[in-house]
Specification:
- The protein is of the alpha/beta class.
- It has 10 helices and 8 strands.
- The protein has an 8-stranded parallel barrel, surrounded by 5 helices.
- Helix 1 packs parallel to helix 10 and helix 5 (101-113) crosses helix 7.
C-alpha cells in the first residue's frame, strides 16, 4: 500500500521537524510512506527520513525544463533536491492556477525524463457527478494526460474535486466504480490511490476496497496521531 501525505502550504521548519519525527518514530508498517512538503521543507524532511522507509516528493513542478521562468521549479531541480516523486494536476493547481490536462501531460513527460514518479491527480466536480458525467470526465482527463506517457511509470490519485477539504467522502461504490474503470483503462498496469477527505476514521475501509492501492491524505497528514493510524494500516 502507498500512504501519501500532501502537506500543502503548511508548516514552518520547526513544525515540520516535530511532525516528521513523530511520524517516523511511530511507524510500524511495510506500507510505502510518501511525504509531499512545501519546497522549503524538502531538504529538512529528506535529512530526517534518510534511514526510514519514507520517501519525499514535491507538490508540483514546472511545465518548462529550464530558463527565465521566475518562481518556477523544474522537474530536474525537484529530482536534484532529493525527491523521488512529484504531485501533478492537483485540483487546487487546476482551480487557482488554471492548469490544464495538456500542461499536466507536459509536466509528466519532464518528470519521468528526470527519473521522478509523477502522482497524477484526476477527478470530477460535484456538478459532473450529479449529472452522471464522472466516467466521461475521467476518460477525457486520462486520454489527454497520458498521451505518450508510460502509465507504469506513474501513480494515479482519484480525488473527487467535491470531496477535497470539504469533509465529504465518496461512497464506497463510487470509489470502486472509478477505480475499476481506471484499472481497466490501463489493463492493471498503474497503481491507483484515493484522495478526498481521507482521515483516520475512514481510511481502513477505503484501503480495503478493490483496486485501491493506497490513499492521498491532506489535512489529516498534518496531525501525527491521525496520520500514523492511517499509515499503519495492515493489509489482510
Amino acid at each position: 500500500m502507498i500512504i501519501a501525505a500532501n502537506w500543502k502550504m503548511n508548516l514552518t521548519q520547526k513544525q515540520a521537524v516535530s511532525l516528521i519525527n513523530s511520524i517516523a518514530n511511530n511507524l510500524n508498517t511495510k506500507n510505502n510512506i510518501l511525504i509531499f512538503p512545501s519546497f522549503t521543507l524538502i531538504e529538512t524532511v529528506k535529512k530526517l527520513t534518510s534511514q526510514k522507509t519514507i520517501f519525499v516528493g514535491a507538490q508540483d513542478c514546472s511545465v518548462n525544463s529550464s530558463g527565465a521562468y521566475t518562481g518556477e521549479v523544474s522537474a530536474e531541480q525537484v529530482k536534484d533536491s532529493g525527491c523521488n516523486y512529484v504531485i501533478l494536476g492537483h485540483s487546487e493547481r487546476r482551480k487557482y492556477h488554471n492548469e490544464t490536462d495538456l500542461q499536466i501531460n507536459k509536466k509528466a513527460k519532464l518528470a519521468i525524463k528526470s527519473d521522478l514518479t509523477p502522482l497524477i491527480c484526476i477527478g470530477e466536480t460535484l456538478e459532473q457527478r450529479k449529472t452522471n458525467q464522472t466516467i466521461k470526465v475521467i476518460k477525457a482527463q486520462l486520454d489527454e494526460i497520458y498521451t505518450e506517457v508510460d502509465a507504469s511509470r506513474t501513480i494515479i490519485a482519484y480525488e473527487p474535486v467535491w470531496a477535497i477539504g470539504t469533509g465529504l467522502t465518496a461512497k464506497n461504490e463510487e470509489i470502486i466504480e472509478v477505480h475499476n474503470y481506471i484499472n481497466d483503462y490501463f489493463s492493471g498496469k498503474v497503481r491507483i490511490l484515493y484522495g478526498g477527505s481521507v482521515n483516520e476514521q475512514n481510511s481502513d475501509e477505503i484501503l480495503a476496497l478493490k483496486n485501491v492501492s493506497g490513499v492521498l491524505v491532506g489535512g489529516a497528514s498534518l496531525v501525527a496521531e491521525k496520520f500514523i493510524k492511517i499509515a499503519n494500516f495492515l493489509q489482510k
